[in-house]
Design brief:
This protein is 41% helix and 17% strand. Strands 5-2-1-10-9-8-7-6 form an eight-stranded parallel beta sheet. Strands 3-4 form a two-stranded antiparallel ribbon. It has helices at residues 18-31, 43-46, 49-53, 64-71, 75-88, 99-105, 123-131, 145-155, 180-188, 204-211, 238-255, 267-273, and strands at 5-9, 35-40, 55-58, 61-63, 92-96, 113-115, 136-139, 159-165, 193-198, 216-220. It has one domain: TIM Barrel (Alpha-Beta Barrel), CATH 3.20.20.70. The chain has twelve helices and ten strands.
Amino acid sequence: MSAIEIVGEIGINADGSVDTAMNLIKMCYELGVDYVKFQKRCITDCYSKEELDSPRESKWGTTFREQKEGLEFDREDYIEIDDFCKCLGIPWYASPWDKKSIKFLEEFDIPYIKVPSALITWNDYLECVKDTGIPVVMSTGMSTKKEVDRALSILGDSVYCIMHTTSSYPTPIDDLNIRKIQTLKSLYGKKAKIGYSNHFPSIMAIIFAAAMGIDMVEFHVTHDRAAVGTDHSSAMEKRNIETIVEWCTSLPTVMGDGKWTVHKSEIPVMKKLRKH
């Protein structure tokens, strides 16, 4: 595993296809990503009947319900995904978006459970997450410090990593605020690891965040950023992921220990160029 835990968010970019999910899992594994991540919803719990019955054109039909049903993986799909990840040797976990999905994820041996930014103010949900006993990764997008502190007080010692996040897709460069990582480290660094969840459409923010000393980085992955869907445009393709893994893995060596020293590699140059 790299010095920074690297998470490839597949989520809805699998487009409801287990084959596509497996291709993305395989790509992440081959490129050295540490974990792959999904999203799990019980759509009748997440959305009202009015929302589900509203018009929405997609390849699955003409309603919002048909689109959400088309995107969602069921139990058999997740069993297949779980077996595939075990076969490759890359762990997976997910963001549950309702209490039934929390219970569903408990059926699997996952390393983390992810609390998305949208749900950190739902106290009953947070209690259910804590009750699983699974270490929690929590995003902090679109949230005040008071809201984050309240969520952390409920989740308690189950919190493994707190993620700096800006919840816009893709994130405008003016809203990245990467220095907030330093704020999170000063406030919560003794209680949990600090990470960064990216929605910016290039590797720049990820590399800057890595240099800030994060412990975990999460980014959406895709085979094609031009594909139809809300998360593709802010996702990373193969060539981006290769660079992210290389740079995050090399970061401890590149950053060094900060001590003032003349390096061995400089000695021959010093002997050659210094005349006085």
